[in-house]
Amino acid sequence: MAIIAVGHKNPDTDTIVSAIAVADLYKKAYGKDVKPVAQGAVNPESKFVLDKFGLAAPEIVTDATGQQIILVDHTDLSQSLANLDKGEIVAVVDHHKLGDVTTTNPLEMWVWPVGCSCTVIKGMYDFFKVEVPKPIAGAMLCAILSDTVMFKSPTCTDADKKAVDALAKIAGVSDYMSIGVEMFKVKSAVEGTPMKDLLNRDYKDFDMSGKKVGIGQLEVVDLSILTPYKDGLYAEMEKAKKEGGNHSVFLLLTDIMKEGSEMLCLTDDPSVVEKAFGKKIEGKSVWLDGVLSRKKQVVPPFEKAFKG
Amino acid sequence: MAIIAVGHKNPDTDTIVSAIAVADLYKKAYGKDVKPVAQGAVNPESKFVLDKFGLAAPEIVTDATGQQIILVDHTDLSQSLANLDKGEIVAVVDHHKLGDVTTTNPLEMWVWPVGCSCTVIKGMYDFFKVEVPKPIAGAMLCAILSDTVMFKSPTCTDADKKAVDALAKIAGVSDYMSIGVEMFKVKSAVEGTPMKDLLNRDYKDFDMSGKKVGIGQLEVVDLSILTPYKDGLYAEMEKAKKEGGNHSVFLLLTDIMKEGSEMLCLTDDPSVVEKAFGKKIEGKSVWLDGVLSRKKQVVPPFEKAFKG
Ligand SMILES: [Mn+2]
Ligand SMILES: [Mn+2]
Fold first, then answer.
1. Among all ligands shown, which has an atom nearest to the Cα of A160?
2. What Pfam families does this protein map onto (chains A, B) (predicted)?
3. What are the DSSP calls for chain A, one per residue?
4. Among all ligands shown, which has an atom nearest to the Cα of A74?
5. Cβ <8 Å between A109 and B98
6. Which of A116, A225, A240, A269 could link A144 by a cystine bridge, Cβ 3.0 to 4.6 Å?
């Protein structure tokens, strides 16, 4: 039976492309049969990327029972497959903080503090002296541009930029920034999308000192695109909070050109927002200047605030 | 302030040498000031290795408060520094199963399913194209011989053997196996050692489904060396169980020549031993044929047995 390579819930482009790339690399480096899968359907941005480079969307798998697993782009149980303890994690490739996943057996882990899992995977291709296939190289560079908001995010490192340069050469892409803008326009498209899908497009639950905290993010090229949808999104947040038994649900509406985020807030304890960001909620939201990265600029201050 | 590199409690040779080697590598690869430290004094085997290659024993540090930390050779909170959540883990280098350590920030992790953390570190030196200093190469090869019981342990991989070959060349060591035998003779020496020190020489507490389970190991070149000490060791295990509030304390008396272990057992539920190994405790112990590795042959079956 094939090992499965799988990213986090509500898959983003990095999670989808990392699963595809790691599967390719492990086949070639170790001769192992690895199948890329995903916990859900690909979002419009990922579909654009896969179509552009002629790659197939991964099959959907949501349960770990009896599987050998390579986890990509996450190490949090709440973002992972159901019944993870009934499968065996054989490897982890990630670029986030270390979460609460544990294993029973020794494993392989490639985790770097860079902007994108695909940057780690480029390093692994180099380490194992395996060539990145042309279509996978194209998709990987898009994943890096997506995760780093075209190099603007504070999570972006030199390693990410170098990886994009090298991958662009392999993929034969001469102007990757214009592909990036095209991709973010696809990502910004909200018309006709049900509110629920919009909230879930990039939504993650975190365990913060025992409290369930959901944080979603929508990145757009111009925040005004979202103005007509704020009330509908807030109503969806209320539903998600109730259904999930969450302490808090936050939604970052990120303007990648203005380089900041309006955060819609729904919480049992509004003081955590002030503790975390030194600003009070006005109405239903707070403007966070310069905040582009949930991972680096939102999760750590909230974790501190929830600690007490 | 320097970053500290630190291994697990009751440091063994791999933990000591990994801290020293990682500190050297991070200085050279990243230009960072890293200081190797340890959670306790070096054991006789490690002292032999450090003396042989002219290396100093690391300073003792037991609290993480306010420190930036590189964790080596473990990811279990119970084996780590006190107040780990009051420091910041910036990197992890290990070869064990993934434990319950988590972080608030993205980090670097190098974890491979090989016989010794020093094998991973040899791979890192290669990756960063940094030369291993001669004395550190000598100590690293001893750590690998120690952790893999001179390649006999089932945890030993081809990567471990290749690393030893390469490190021996760098260290100018022509007959590393005879150094290995010398080292294991030092390790086997028990005369004059207080029982408490003997139990603690390589002792680790694990959290198994909410139960505290201590597992120690003594490796000797001939099990009969330990016959006069069994009662004294058992009495120490009783003390440790009481003081630590443990559910169980096990001590592996490993005969590296016969390739098996007598496991002294002290537990609130003797059925876990039968569940884990299919053998009943006779008197105070059970003989486990072919069992040399706590990590690979003892911890996983116990974890399964404790799960129910
Ligand atoms: Mn990612
Ligand atoms: Mn070790």
1. 1
2. DHH, DHHA2
3. --EEEE--SS--HHHHHHHHHHHHHHHHHH---EEEEESSPPPHHHHHHHHHHT-PPPEE--B-TT-EEEEES---GGGS-BTGGGSEEEEEEE-SB--S---SSB-EEEE-SSS-HHHHHHHHHHHTT-PPPHHHHHHHHHHHHHHTTTTTSTT--HHHHHHHHHHHHHHT-S-HHHHHHHHHHHHH--TT--HHHHHHTTEEEEEETTEEEEEEEEEES-GGGGGGGHHHHHHHHHHHHHHHT-SEEEEEEEETTTTEEEEEEEES-THHHHHHHS---BTTEEEEET---IIIIIHHHHHHHHH-
4. 1
5. yes
6. A116
